[in-house]
Amino acid sequence: MSEQLLPRDRTRPVSVGGVTIGGGAPVVVQSMTCTDTADAEATLKQVRQLAQAGCDIVRVTLPRAEACDSFRTICAQSPVPIVADIHFDYRLAIAAVEAGAAKLRINPGNIGSWERVDAVIDAAGEAGAAIRIGVNAGSLESDIAERSELTLPEKLVMSSLKFVEHFEARGFTDIVLSAKAHSVPTTIETYRALSRELPHVPLHLGVTEAGTLRQGTIKSSVGLGVLLAEGIGDTLRVSLTADPTEEPPVAWGILECLGIRRRGPELVSCPTCGRTQVDLIPIAQEVERRLLSATKPITVAVMGCVVNGPGEASDADVGVACGKGSALLFRHGEVVRKIAEADIVDELMAEIDRL
Ligand code: SF4
């Protein structure tokens, strides 16, 4: 972990199908499928794509009883633990743990009654499944939502405390907590308060309804990045209005920027300027694209000219410093050879393969 970061809070470890959330375990990356859960084949295909993209666990909605058989198949064949997303119907939550869900995500406020919530808690306890208590600004209980003297973060924290106390009083401690809002300042204030009030409960971070690829990436990076830098958060989901496979790379990018967890190479590339004498932007983009599936924890530099190029390229494991229509290829600080502009990407990737 980077020395600049505050120490990570030590929350209670919760096992989700063998993946540990909290307790000092690596921050867990997750996302959610957008296929019809009744279509097991399509959903499993997307689960595998998400696992390939870096998800440690994947959430799947279970909206109706007819999807239960398919959900069971998905749990049985998934390469990663499956979380069932349940709203309103406590019987679906019970069916989900019986079908193999490693964790449930419920908002206890929309399950109907404490008796029904207790039935879900007991079923999860019996099956060894964890539960995420998912409080959301858009669906707060009316007795809390209507209290105009409270700020939104105060309402989210009040609702969270009530549910956590209830679960723990029933003897169920395999809980992860989220309290999501679409505003970044609200998210930061809420999670800071939760980590103060409930320091032992693992927190699932997310900015909900964060928006499209660009806006959602910015909001999630700022909101979750601030919290993670303060040692808050044990798992995260970046929510984007985009193909779900776009989400894990952003989550990993946030973790890698902060030095919390590393999955693949770091690309250092300059912004280009009037000194650049090669077409650097498509070169850097192609290198980034080809590095997406790489898992070596190396640094790769793509630099436009001799001003900062040789320095950055020699600091990296592999790098290029470009000149007029050509580039010098560096490996561990030594010049390997001069290469033509057209060969930069292929030569760079070949050198990475030789590491
Ligand atoms: S490395 Fe060279 S080309 Fe790139 S921004 Fe700096 S001065 Fe410009």
What does this entry look like structurally?
With 355 residues, the protein is of the alpha/beta class. The protein folds into 2 domains: 2-257, Dihydropteroate synthase-like (TIM Barrel); 266-354, 2-Layer Sandwich (Sulfite Reductase Hemoprotein, domain 1). The protein has 12 helices and 15 strands. The strands form 3 sheets. The chain has an 8-stranded parallel sheet. A 5-stranded mixed sheet has the order 11-12-13-14-15, sandwiched between helices. A two-stranded antiparallel ribbon has the order 1-2. The two termini are 24 Å apart. The mean pLDDT is 94. Iron/sulfur cluster (SF4) is lined by residues 270-273, 275-276, 303-305, 307-309.
Would you identify the CATH H-level superfamily of the largest domain? Dihydropteroate synthase-like
> Mind telling me the C-alpha Rg?
23 Å
Fraction in beta strands: 15-25%
The sequence of SSEs as H and E is EEEHEHEHEHEHHEHEHEHEHEHEEEH
CATH class of the largest domain, anyone? Alpha Beta
CATH architecture of the largest domain: Alpha-Beta Barrel
Q: Helix count?
A: 12
User: Within the largest sheet, what's the order of strands?
Assistant: 8-7-6-5-4-3-10-9
Q: What is the SS-derived class?
A: alpha/beta
Query: For the report, how would you describe the main beta sheet?
Result: 8 strands, parallel
Structural domains: how many? 2
| Principal-axes shape call | elongated
CATH topology title of the largest domain: TIM Barrel
What small ligands are held by the chains? iron/sulfur cluster
Q: Which assembly state applies to the chains in this document?
A: single chain
